[in-house]
Amino acid sequence: MKAAYTFRDATLKSVPLRALNRVGGVLERFGRAYPVLDADQVVSASQKAAGTSDLGSDSYREPLERYIEAVREEAELNSFGRLAVRGMLVRALTNRINLNRWAQEHPEIRNERIERPWVIVGLPRTGSSLLSNLLGLDPLARAPLHWEAANLIPPADIETAMTDPRIRESQQEIDQLHALNPPFAFMHPTGATLAQECVAFFMYDIRTLGVETQAYVPRYGRWLEKCDMSPAYAQHKLALQALQAAQPTESWILKTPNHLWSLPTLLETYPDARIIWTHRDPGPVVTSLASLVNTLQRMFTTRDDPRPAAEEWKNKLKSALNTGMSFDAKARDEWCFHMHYKDLVANPIETVRRIHQYFGEETAPLHERRIRAWMNRTSPSAVGRHAYDPTDFGWSYATLAEEFADYSGRYGVSCD
Hints:
Elements: E1 3-5, H1 15-29, H2 39-50, H3 61-75, H4 79-105, E2 118-120, H5 128-135, E3 141-142, H6 146-150, H7 165-180, H8 182-187, H9 199-202, H10 218-226, H11 230-246, E4 251-255, H12 263-269, E5 274-279, H13 282-298, H14 307-330, E6 336-340, H15 341-346, H16 348-358, H17 365-375, E7 384-386, H18 397-403, H19 405-411
Parallel strand pairs: 1-7, 2-4, 2-5, 3-4, 5-6
């Protein structure tokens, strides 16, 4: 029988890191939190890592400062958490500097046309990863990979795409994360060569849900939901152009719920995007995500109560759906394809066919054959599963159904 992992299993067992937190706790009581989280220091560290100081513009500055302020005042991070957050921010801005420099040295990449990308905008846990994998079996399309988003420049070319040493380095980082936090491995498939959410490219401007998964920062979250996302989409597009110039592809497969808050900006950036909105019973979706977020944050914070982070993400998902529904009510007909999770699981090939037909295309025979082979593959036997319960967060599936009734009713979303 598979072991059932919950967010409670995400405990920090590393002796050196526990010692670091004890020392950090003593320092914090004397008003000297370690390490210091400071915007100027983060920028300086990223410039040192990249070997140049040119960040292209200062669009990153406000979100960086707002995020760090929220971390200080709301996140209740331990020393390991502050180290992790600082490292995340430094890496994001280092990638930004490297991308900006690459674009200056190779101005021709800006001529790359990102045409008719597939964009999956549904909430997490709604089949978006499965759909991304299925669409990616088309030889003419591909998604950004985890290792590419983590260390973009220089983009690998066709010759080195399978042998780049950054693949192994990225997998080693993932293996270290899984060793520190084993439950996460069974809650969210992660691998260096697996498709990555394109939200990773928003990281380069620090305007992203990605930084909210690492720390409880409601103040930053409220700002992010209303901010101008154009600078983040500019980084997003430039990253795709750099990758496409090195490895041409006919279309990209992109996915993140971050798009639901900024559909007008998404369509300004990619006017011919083929958008797919994935739908699933919000009860399990919200509960599963609450468990996942608490699993990620548990080792970084001194807070034991899982309910604040759970409530924050429940409200975030509600906001995303309300914003998306408001756009849908005013948008042109047929601006997106509405896909139900149950349909995808019941008949993957037929669902992909319907998506293609909706956008005036046909599913190529080779694509269908590859989907069948992928679905029939022999997977390694999993030794764990993700278990979650709404009562852990003060909810019930009945109350969640009431809270999300407008969404479920509008799109005919039935209970799992």
